[in-house]
Design brief:
By secondary structure, the protein is of the alpha/beta class. It is built from 14 helices and 20 strands. The strands form five sheets. A seven-stranded mixed beta sheet has the order 7-6-15-16-17-14-18. A six-stranded mixed beta sheet has the order 9-2-1-13-20-19, covered by helices on one side. The protein has a three-stranded antiparallel beta sheet with strand order 10-11-12. Helix 5 crosses helix 7. Bound molecules: flavin-adenine dinucleotide. The site of flavin-adenine dinucleotide has 36 residues, from helix 1, strand 14, strand 18 and helix 14.
């Protein structure tokens, strides 16, 4: 492969930034196009009192090998820090810690027999092979291992919290991977980075500039096309660009809208790209007091407007949190749902009222600042046999590549998953040599 190729990268989230980084390192002449005014995609930030905070909670896990290797390549390995975290489960008015076998045995909402079955399910999940799990639903798999009572009162709320009413379709392989990612090490540890995720984005952008990458913000790409006569072409703003190859890293559901009619008819129509995605609504509260002793409290119930409470300041040093106690109240839902489309002020008001009811030591006066963010495309809505239906990495052989969250399965959608997928696409393009780690 010639390394003086002109390659365009569409989308400036972690997938696009990582791809541009490796391609530039391979010697390509890279141009990166991002639609919004910020780079980082779902990991972008907002400013508050002189610091930056992620719009959506983000943390690393010790098992995030591809991301941690990238950080090392960017000389950021000593900038990460790790904290032990715990998980709580709200049932009725009580938050039960659920981190050890003893915690599970004390989990009163379930009968003793169901508690034991849930424990055995966890043990089995950690040693079972993943073979065949893409063809059985999480619901059926968990019911068969833990029993109906444990499924209805324990597993079902957790699945609903992530997928809403579409939880029934999700393959057990998704559950198994997620479970082993989060409970893979004995101690539960989560990682963060000095300066927040913006630090990673800024360092990548700096590296891209040093490699001479052309970086365009507020430059939504449209009308991507390919023909034998003109090669790969697209528009950004009013300018018509051409390149040798293009890598598209946007969420899958927007792919058709950035393609020309010719490209849609000739290339996309023969692919199975009808994979829908779940969105998210998120309230962030800056508080005077600590909320709970858990990083994450699952709180899934019909009368609660959110599904979980993540106390992100638990994993942040005070230089990063600014001494605030910061919680995210999130609700995963589809972009067409009533929940997603409710007025933001309404979601905020209902969430804060319920939050203060659940955590009765917090009153509205303890909330110093609040913010709401939403995103329409977060995670694919998986269904049976998903592994065989994943979108291809190459749309036009040797010319147009796709790199998107819908491909990382069964890896959990995460920065680690996206960096891993970027490495696969780079290898497919013939630039493995740019991937060597230090
Ligand atoms: C609530 C929440 C919590 C999460 N928690 C974690 C966590 O703890 N740890 C973790 O690792 N991950 C977490 N994630 C997941 C993680 O954010 C995503 O998996 C990852 O950011 C996906 O990156 P991406 O670059 O593939 O896509 P995106 O981040 O979606 O980036 C796509 C980019 O393409 C741009 N774009 C769209 N259309 C165009 C166009 N026409 N032209 C040019 N650009 C375009 C978009 O503006 C965007 O910047 C979380 C996500 C959410 C929402």
């Amino acid at each position: 492969m010639s390394s003086s190729e002109r390659v365009a990268v569409v989308g400036g989230g972690i997938s696009g930034l990582t791809t541009a980084f490796y391609l530039a390192r391979a010697g390509c002449k890279v141009a990166l196009f991002e639609a919004s005014d910020q780079f980082g995609g779902l990991g972008t930030f907002f400013e508050h009192q002189g610091r930056t905070f992620e719009r959506f909670y983000h943390c690393m896990l010790p098992t995030d090998e591809d991301l941690l290797n990238l950080l090392s390549e960017l000389s950021l390995e000593n900038e990460t820090y790790w904290k032990e975290t715990t998980f709580g489960y709200l049932s009725g008015h009580t938050i039960y810690p659920l981190n050890t076998a003893i915690d599970l045995l004390r989990f009163k909402p379930l009968s003793l027999l169901s508690r034991i079955r849930v424990g055995l399910t966890g043990l089995y999940g950690s040693i079972a092979s993943s073979k065949g799990l893409d063809d059985v639903t999480s619901a059926d798999w968990l019911k068969s291992l833990s029993g109906s009572e444990a499924f209805e009162k324990f597993w079902r709320p957790l699945l609903e919290a992530k997928f809403g009413d579409r939880f029934q379709q999700v393959p057990a392989l998704w559950f198994w991977t997620r479970f082993n990612r989060e409970k893979g090490s004995k101690k539960e540890e989560k990682g963060y980075i000095h300066g927040g995720y913006k630090r990673i984005v800024d360092t990548l952008l700096q590296a891209l500039k040093q490699y001479g990458v052309d970086i365009y913000a507020e430059a939504p790409v449209r009308e991507i096309d390919h023909s034998e006569e003109n090669g790969v072409t697209f528009r950004a703003g009013n300018i018509l660009h051409s390149c040798d190859r293009i890598v598209i890293t946007t969420p899958l559901p927007v792919l058709k809208s950035l393609s020309s009619d010719n490209f849609r008819d000739r290339y996309l129509s023969r692919l199975n790209l009808d994979i829908d995605m779940q969105g998210v609504l998120n309230v962030i509260l800056f508080l005077k007091k600590r909320v709970s002793r858990h990083y994450w409290v699952a709180a899934s119930s019909a009368d609660i407007p959110f599904q979980g409470v993540v106390e992100t300041s638990d994993i942040m040093n005070t230089e990063d949190s600014g001494n605030f106690h910061i919680v995210h109240l999130m609700k995963y839902c589809h972009r067409t749902s009533e929940a997603f489309n409710q007025p933001v002020e309404e979601f905020k008001r209902r969430s804060i009222t319920k939050f203060c009811e659940i955590f009765s030591h917090i009153s509205p006066e303890d909330i110093e600042h609040e913010f709401v963010f939403k995103a329409p495309f977060v995670e694919p809505i998986y269904s049976l046999g998903y592994a065989k239906r994943k979108p291809p990495e190459e749309i036009v052989s040797g010319k147009v590549y796709l790199l998107t969250t819908a491909q990382v399965y069964p890896t959990v959608t995460s920065w680690n998953g996206s960096v891993g997928q970027a490495r696969k696409v780079i290898a497919k393009m013939g630039f493995e040599s740019a991937l060597s780690t230090r």
